[in-house]
Amino acid sequence: MKFQTLHNMKKSVYLLSLLLMSFTLTSSILTPQVLPVSGAELTFYADVVKYPLPGLPEAVLDGSEFTVQVKMPSDVVWGNATVFNDLAGVTAILLDAQYDAKNGLWNLRFDLPSGIREGAYSLTLEYTTSGATQAKTVTQLRCLWILPQWPEKLKVLACGDVKPGAGGLPYWIEMAPEANLIDPDVVIFLGDLVNVPSVVSEWSSFKGPFEAFLDPLYMTAGNHEYQAPGDAKIYERIMAPVNYSTTIGDFLLLCLDTDLNGWVSMERLQWAEQVLKANSNKTKIMFFHYAFFNEEEIKPKGNAWFNISSWENVTAFLNEGMIFPTWAAHPEETKELFRLIIEYDVRLIMYEHIHTDLNVIVENTATGKKHYFICPAALAFDVPNYDRRGFKLVDIYANGTVDESTLYYNGTAMFSYPNSIPIDTGCTVNYQPIKPYKIGYLEYYYAPANDGQHNAVSFTVKNELNQDFKDPRIIFKLPADVPLENYRWHPYKPDYEAVTRNGIHYVILKGVTIHAHSTLFFTVESTDDTDNPTVSLLNVPGKVDPDSWIQFNVKASDYGWGVKEVSLTYSIDGETWSKAELMDLQTAKNGAVTYKAWIRAPNQDTTLIIKAEARDFAGHESVEAVQSITVGTPPPPKYSLNINSSPITGVTFTLEGESHATPYSVTLETGNYTISVSDKINVDKKTYEFVQWGDGVTSTTRTIKLEKDTTLTLEYKEVPPPETGVPLLQIAAVAAIVIAVVVAIAVLKMKKTS
After folding, report:
1. What pLDDT score does 647 carry?
2. How many angstroms from the chain centroid is the CA of residue 488?
3. Cβ partners under 8 Å of residue 198, min gap 6
4. DSSP letter at 382?
5. Which partner from 452, 611, 669, 691 sits 20 to 30 angstroms from 143, CA to CA?
6. In this model, does residue 477 exceed pLDDT 90?
7. What CATH number should be reported for the domain whose range is 442-525?
8. When comparing pLDDT for 397 and 11, which is higher?
């Protein structure tokens, strides 16, 4: 299917969704600042505090001034402000407060004290209203980016297209903690935060991970943030303006609005030119939602490095179908945008929408300057066939240089796709996951908890990616009731910086690198761990088909130093064990870690034995958790049958009609077997008669049920032989005969002599 057709289909489905679901967000969303949603709260970040915003923070130098715009009544009296995050908190002094009656806005100016550490900060404003005796506050999340000096380089994490209500939530949930560990200078999100802007649950799903980011985050609106062309009122009240610019020292960030239908209006482009003119000496980063180049035409070329001599060469791009269809339908706006990029030397241009990664380099041979058009892989559910989800991590310097090696994932290449840093295994056709399926190749956790209440905290990270991450954000939170010097480190004491605040030691590791395909771990503790971890198998299926993927969970717990590792093996004979094909971390909290395990069932009918073990950071091991799974219809189990005879051997018997002799040993399947023996036998000229079986059965024929290894004993007794002496009666008879014979002979002799 060509993309133009697919794009039109998506647009039709989207507009239909708006008609069907717009009733779910009624006028109530337009009145309160916070709307309860299923026990949570949906915050309209841009409803009261108009600037700075969590999606449009202000970059401020340490010890300088910053401005705030607030929509409040004219009779409000303002006080000082509190600037804070976990590691620091200071009071910013109010310098000036001017009310703009035309727009109903307060313009506040504050003095930021010096000495505050670098990072993203939240802001609390204090005010009183007319007639009130008690001060009130309004807080804006992560809206200030405080720097000790203007940066020479920006590490930009670029991602986009979540739409949590359309299946993208798991990837958004994964993106926040990965970004927090990587610790970029800035995160730029490239639109499509939600699927339908009028559905409250979409925003509430987006909110949790959004608020979990620890670094400055700049947003742009995607087509899914619009209710109609030109109408992104809900997005603007919740998140940020649809187009804006901001400076960070020598860098200019310029956000443009591609609206619902996928191009920037000439009016907005004229505004953009004024911004570019005013910041002509800065390194410029431009971002919007709809892709500028058409991946369906460019990817098959295998190379997207194009030389131009003038911005007017964009006409050739249009003629050759290399411009994305929504832009190509507006050639004048396309040409104007391209002119601005080339004439004002916009070095980095980022966008999303196509749900796949695409790198295009345009080199101006007249100036020797390169312009990088970068699209990261999406975080959305619906990605192209045989693609995967991910993000870009781009280094750009204040002199305009882009580190080209950061435009693609290590092990790929500039135009070898997919080449974003992956966040999942990827899909086959129609979003079917490649099995075994994994979300997150940068797995880490603190154990048992990193909440400032545990005197032992461990950290472990498993990097399954092809690249290193230098200076990650690893911060231990330890109770300050124990002096920091009394804490012990394992396996060694790293370099760190410590901040003690509100009863907590914040220990910030320095000089650490998480190398590709490696595991890194630390434990810091002031208490011994004497208990063993526990492990259990959860949701194990009782029966599966041969050659299928088996999924279940493994949970391990340890409330001392925490669970260090969990292993899972399986066997079909109880002797040869194999590792699970995949262990995917699901949760790590309150001393417990849970993994989803993937095992490939053998391609045969059998019984599969699975075994889980856990080890904690103190080196203690758990008791094994063992379960069995029936694969297909396995043959009955086999057991050994042993038959012996006492006190003799060589006794003949029949087993299921076949003749055998003792001693006898055989392996048989479980089942019923009939065994018969003779009641009397002759062995070595002796006669024996059957007495009983060893278990007391006296019948010569019996049936056994073989359910385990069985030993049967035959008991026989010998039959005594006949007496060997001559009986007295026989002796008397013989004697009588002898006497009779003697008498007869004597009589004969007497007759002869007479």
Report:
1. 83
2. 31
3. 18, 21, 22, 24, 25, 29, 227, 234
4. -
5. 452
6. yes
7. 2.60.40
8. 397
Phi first, then psi, for residue 216 (nearest 5°) are -55, 135
- Is residue 212 classed exposed, middle or buried when 0-12, 13-18 and 19+ CB atoms within 10 A define those classes? middle
Position 724 scores a pLDDT of 54
**Cis peptide before 436, with omega less than 30 degrees from 0?**
yes
Which pLDDT does position 736 carry in this prediction? 53
The predicted model gives 191-203 an average pLDDT of 94
Is domain 3-44+154-422 annotated with CATH 3.60.21.10? yes
Instruction: Using DSSP, state whether 12 is helix, strand or coil.
Output: helix
Mean pLDDT calculated for residue range 46-50: 96
Instruction: Quickly count: other Cβ atoms within 10 Å of residue 332's Cβ.
Output: 10
pLDDT value, residue 43: 86
Q: Which bin fits 22, alpha (ψ -120 to 50), beta or left (φ > 0)?
A: alpha
Q: Does domain 534-631 have CATH number 3.50.50.60?
A: no
User: Across the strands, what pairs with 162?
Assistant: none
Q: How many residues does the chain have?
A: 754
CATH number of 58-141: 2.60.40
3-state helix, strand, coil in the chain (%, to 5): 20, 40, 40
Beta strands per DSSP E along 115-231:
119-128, 136-147, 153-159, 186-189, 217-219
Is 259:289 a contact under the CB 8 Å cutoff?
Answer: no
Say which residues have a Cβ less than 8 Å from residue 31's Cβ, sequence separation at least 6: none
Start and end residues for every CATH 3.60.21.10 domain found in the chain: 3-44+154-422
What phi, psi does 105 have (nearest 5°)? -120, 140
- Starting at the edge strand that comes first in sequence, how are the strands of the sheet with 638-646 ordered? 664-669, 638-646, 710-719, 686-693, 680-683
Greatest alpha-carbon pair distance for the chain in Å reads 186
Q: Could you count the other beta carbons within 10 Å of the beta carbon of residue 183? A: 17
pLDDT at residue 511, rounded to an integer: 96
Q: Which two tokens stand for residue 711?
A: 């030993």
Answer yes or no: is pLDDT of 754 > 50: no
